[in-house]
């Protein structure tokens, strides 16, 4: 099911935590992509698309990365937003506009937990069309990936669902 869903979107988005944890599939390190990365290898073999790397660094360090342009990809630079209490974070509205400017009209967000929790925050929920939960050989919750967005209430004090889930019965 996951592979079918991936085929229906212009792009797939994961967080750096997922990229590092998923080393066997992505062969990615937080310091940067390497020449023998599975992403680049698949592209060179004609089986994948050139990767785009979203970063807040204006100029990613050349000694710690392979320029994605070498393989037809690119870096997309996104400014970091600062909250009222001084915390730095990614502004999903800015990121999604940047992706749209680069021709992506739909993005599948595969996680991990920090990315999903952030995107399900009240200020970004209007960007979400659908939530589909697929269970992989990974534990969710305590001791695993924690996905637990903050609960919100309407003016009458009634809880507002974070998202509507599609639950397949087969």
From TrEMBL:
GO molecular function: 5-amino-6-(5-phosphoribosylamino)uracil reductase activity
Chemical reaction(s) catalysed: 2,5-diamino-6-(1-D-ribitylamino)pyrimidin-4(3H)-one 5'-phosphate + NADP(+) = 2,5-diamino-6-(1-D-ribosylamino)pyrimidin-4(3H)-one 5'-phosphate + NADPH + H(+); 2,5-diamino-6-(1-D-ribitylamino)pyrimidin-4(3H)-one 5'-phosphate + NAD(+) = 2,5-diamino-6-(1-D-ribosylamino)pyrimidin-4(3H)-one 5'-phosphate + NADH + H(+)
Protein name: 2,5-diamino-6-ribosylamino-4(3H)-pyrimidinone 5'-phosphate reductase
Record keywords, A-Z: NADP, Oxidoreductase, Riboflavin biosynthesis
All copies of domain Bacterial bifunctional deaminase-reductase C-terminal, residue ranges: 2-148
Similarity comment: family membership: Belongs to the HTP reductase family.
Gene3D superfamilies: Dihydrofolate Reductase, subunit A
Main enzyme class: oxidoreductase
The keyword NADP is assigned to this record: yes
Pathway: Cofactor biosynthesis; riboflavin biosynthesis
Physiological role: Catalyzes an early step in riboflavin biosynthesis, the NADPH-dependent reduction of the ribose side chain of 2,5-diamino-6-ribosylamino-4(3H)-pyrimidinone 5'-phosphate, yielding 2,5-diamino-6-ribitylamino-4(3H)-pyrimidinone 5'-phosphate.
Entry EC number(s): 1.1.1.302
Pfam families recorded: RibD_C (PF01872)
Gene Ontology terms: biological process: riboflavin biosynthetic process
